[in-house]
Design a protein that fits this description.
The chain has three helices and four strands; from the N terminus they run ααββββα. With 99 residues, the protein is α+β, with helices and mostly antiparallel strands. The chain has one domain: Nuclear Transport Factor 2, Chain: A (Roll), CATH 3.10.450. The chain starts with 16 loop residues before the first helix and ends with a helix.
Length: 99
């Protein structure tokens, strides 16, 4: 797990317009809904070593304000969270999040 203190100095979200539309079309996750997980507890964050080639990437498991469990892949750019992908948690992720 990544220490949450690492993220305390971040200042909002930065979106690629194409990713906003892609996440909705592919996974029916609205960009505002995916941002909600960062304000709700618990929030589990790990480094995504497998996809961290050009920049450090992270994976987050969290829940929306309505309790929807999401998996969110993101990076940090200019002190902002830049969400790459958001989808419903799969069974393995849900189990990890609930424990």
């Amino acid at each position: 797990m990544v220490d949450e203190f690492y993220f305390t100095k971040l200042n909002g979200f930065d979106w690629d317009e194409g990713n906003k539309e892609k996440n909705w079309a592919k996974h029916k996750v609205d960009y505002k809904e995916s941002e909600e997980i960062f304000f709700n507890k618990p929030l589990l964050i790990d480094e995504d070593v497998k996809h961290s080639f050009k920049e450090k990437r992270f994976e987050a498991l969290g829940q929306t304000n309505k309790g929807r469990g999401l998996f969110v892949a993101f990076t940090i750019r200019n002190n902002k969270i830049r969400i790459i992908s958001a989808r419903d948690q799969d069974g393995k992720e849900r189990k990890k999040y609930e424990n």
